[in-house]
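In response to a reviewer's request, we include the raw inputs and outputs for one of the modeled complexes. The two entities were modeled together in a single run.
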Amino acid sequence: MSLETIRRVRDLRERVALWRREGLRVGLVPTMGALHAGHLSLVEKALSLSDRVVATIFVNPRQFGPAEDLAAYPRREADDAALLDAAGAHLLFAPPVDEVYPEGFATTVTVTGVSEGLCGAVRPGHFAGVATVVTKLLLQSLPDVAVFGEKDWQQLQVIRRLVRDLDIPVTVEGAPTLREPDGLAMSSRNAYLGPEDRARAPRLYAILSQVASDLAAGADVATRTAWAVAELEKAGFGPVDYVEARDAETLAPVGERVTRPARLLAAARLGRARLIDNVGIAL
Amino acid sequence: MSLETIRRVRDLRERVALWRREGLRVGLVPTMGALHAGHLSLVEKALSLSDRVVATIFVNPRQFGPAEDLAAYPRREADDAALLDAAGAHLLFAPPVDEVYPEGFATTVTVTGVSEGLCGAVRPGHFAGVATVVTKLLLQSLPDVAVFGEKDWQQLQVIRRLVRDLDIPVTVEGAPTLREPDGLAMSSRNAYLGPEDRARAPRLYAILSQVASDLAAGADVATRTAWAVAELEKAGFGPVDYVEARDAETLAPVGERVTRPARLLAAARLGRARLIDNVGIAL
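The model returned the following structure tokens for the whole complex.
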């Protein structure tokens, strides 16, 4: 395997500086590891937009709540490195926790608006953890472009907002959600699903797709999202954290009916997993 | 005058990119304008550390509390530009408020620890405003070095902390406080002092210097700082926000006696002005 793994910010900077001196464009793909084809599609997109791609693997403790799955989150760096190598990534940055948060660390980046409601309401502190670590990852390597998955739609909007607001000189690109053949959005957390729940899981996407199409046709938002929650509960999901139609960029609530392009977003627990998904509402 | 003033981040980036292509080192001196010799000494220090110096003038609304002097803060950009030109600065970046905080702006950088207590206790939100705008100013131009005055000692520690924590690739340099012949620390806010208060003002530095020297000699911290507060009140200051001995870098409270290098910091109102100052406690 030719992919080199580095652990220290100074080594990352050194590598990137060398590339820059050669006039190469640099792409970044931040991940928490436990890679699947969705992540590899981000690498592919980064490769199409830059000359050298750095993937990062860091399970960021600051974006997990105290009752969440930080300890259980799947970690398999050797497998991940092999996948990244095969996908054509040029460097893996996988820092230990104390390289990212050394003793005395005291700074937080928070984003209001887009980070409120939806997952922000259910996971207090989550998006501050995301915003802080993404700011750091971007400033550690200062890539030309950074690629994030649309599966974490709210996260993507939080990142777009903070990059614009803090004047971070990077282009943020979203990449479409990859799905299993039955429609389930690919996610490292799908590994938590037992066989029965795995069989139920595709209902999330099916219900969202149907409601999005109804809303695009002018259906009442409150009625259809309430129907979606009930359907998910019938299908064995629970609790359902939310099913909501929002402005695609600002995530402001839409009115009674969708009158401009919007996004339908949902989060629901299924067995040991908490699944999230979202689809466009195209008018 | 050869000094050019620019208002837009994209123009700033363009100028700095040109310099970088020539292999030149860039220094940044962020200010709120109303410049005095203290500011010009920051320019001088930046010139000694880099090839091109950008000074910024931006009266940052986010670091003023609702009852503070944002509207009254002195603004005299033409005079400032002439001073910067004479001091050898190469570029003035003086953005309008909506260039720094466009509509929809939603991001805040906060620093715990060093920003708590002292001015942080008296001016809620002040250091979040400082941390956010300094992060932006640094990322707008990505200088090699940025110079800040030691007169705002707590601010300097907040900036050092956030630069380290967010991995901003810049060297932060502090520059010693410049003083009037009678010892008063130079400050744009000294302009608020009427003649009587101006005559009283040097007591702040005199008292701090005496207490710092007592503490360095082993005096009891609580006794001597209480004495300083009483002396300031006797001299016509009031209210005295604080006189405190702190660890010079972490700003953690020192114990009963100072046992390692520390800083003595004070803030007190005098007439229409709120004055701050600080001195080293050298063991």
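As requested, we also summarize the result in words. Chain A touches chain B at residues 9, 13, 104-114, 131-132, 135-136, 139-140, 142, 161-162, 165-169, 250 (CB under 8 Å). Residues 4-175 of chain A form a domain with the Rossmann fold fold (CATH 3.40.50.620).
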